[in-house]
Amino acid sequence: MTNILVTGSGGIGGVNFIRALRLSEKQQNKKLLIISTDHNPYYLKFSGSDVKLVSPRHDDDSFVPLLIKLVEKYNIEFLHPHPSSEARVVSENLASFKKTKVKTYLPKPTSIMPDKLEIHDALAKKHVRVPKTVEITSFEDIDRAFSEIGKPLWIRAKRGAGGRLGLKVETPEEAKHWVELNRLQHRATVADFIIQEYLPGRDLAFDSLWFKGHLVTSYCRERLEYFLKHISLSGITGTPTIARTFVDEKVNRIGVEAVKAIDSEPHGFFSTDIKEDASGNCVVTEVDGKWHTTAPLWGYAFAKALNKLELNIAYQYLRLALNGDTDADLPNYNLFPADYYLVRQLDAGVILEHEDATWRII
Ligand SMILES: Nc1ncnc2c1ncn2[C@@H]1O[C@H](COP(=O)(O)OP(=O)(O)OP(=O)(O)O)[C@@H](O)[C@H]1O
Ligand SMILES: [Mg+2]
Asked: Which listed CATH number (3.40.50.2000, 1.20.1440.230, 3.40.50.970, 3.40.50.20) goes with 2-104?
């Protein structure tokens, strides 16, 4: 039996991660003891763990001491902080965990949740294509962005996830009203925004697993539709209801270049977001040492539908963390074949669909 601790276990990503590990237990007949935390006592109940505990939020002083206490109490061998905010805090405080001997498998803290302007600058420095960007420090910068870049533009917050405060804007007036409204309602200050070239093309993602600087495996997918997009101003609600796998050498290459641009020695799971411009060029909008919400779910869906344990990314990640290897010769690229659709709907479950088969996954 292996004892592990998963934080943020009630969030969509955390639920997917534990669900994938539970499937791997069945498929390899090996038992895990999963202790889990979440700061939300209601969502915590969704976790498929053995022991569920409410934690403070990641920015509370008692968060790390609680994790250390749990590691000691439950003889935890591996600690997996799932949400990027919690992963960053653990990565920043690894020294505090040293005495416990618990293993972690995390990128360095500076590679987790970097500011979008930092990402832009790091990518541009390595000649990875990025959206034309203007940093906003005053309203004059908004006028300058429209005269330098043209229209429409995409305004967004530098920090945060889920497309935070992102909006397509057609005129300087719209952009200024957006900034001003968010300033008045205390969501952000003027300097929290950047404004970028609007990218109208396909919405792509490159998900990759790295170990000590080496690419272990990866795959590409396209988001076709976001959850509840019609009730959001931007249409971006963080995670897709419909997405499909695809295979494209160019996206693989750009995905790897983007990860290496923010971290020369990547270690852990990395997510790259790519949007196409009007001419179909791939432009990187984000690269982050975090788990995309659906990454463990894709692994779960393929492992379950095709009965192939090795496609379960959460399982391979745990193996790497514990033993330093995977249980199969995983391909560096295109772990999942093209044209599989993952369809998720609130309260309705998950379907994996291919032209000749449909699987009810959840
Ligand atoms: N310049 C742009 N033009 C058009 N759409 C954009 C642009 N930048 C980002 N988007 C859209 O917003 C989505 C979220 O942006 P991005 O991934 O860069 O940041 P994020 O806030 O960290 O989001 P998440 O946490 O969901 O990954 C992108 O997947 C894309 O659909
Ligand atoms: Mg993103």
From this structure: 3.40.50.20
Question: How would you label 312-324 residue by residue, b for 16+ Cβ within 10 Å and e otherwise?
Answer: bbbbbbbbbbeee
Nearest CA to ligand 1 atom 21: 163
Report the atom number in ligand 1 closest to the C-alpha of 198: 3
Going by their DSSP bridges, the two strands 78-81 and 2-7 should be labelled as parallel
Q: What is the CATH number of domain 203-360?
A: 3.30.470.20
- Written as one letter, the residue type at 300 is Y
Ligand 1 pocket, 196 CB below 6 A? yes
**202 C-alpha vs ligand 1 centroid, how far in Å?**
12
- Structure tokens given for 104: 């972690």
DSSP 299: H
Each residue's pLDDT, cut to its tens digit, for the chain (362 residues) gives 999 999 999 999 999 999 999 999 999 999 999 999 999 999 999 999 999 999 999 999 999 999 999 999 999 999 999 999 999 999 999 999 999 999 999 999 999 999 999 999 999 999 999 999 999 999 999 999 999 999 999 999 999 999 999 999 999 999 999 999 999 999 999 999 999 999 999 999 999 999 999 999 999 999 999 999 999 999 999 999 999 999 999 999 999 999 999 999 999 999 999 999 999 999 999 999 999 999 999 999 999 999 999 999 999 999 999 999 998 999 999 999 999 999 999 999 999 999 999 999 99
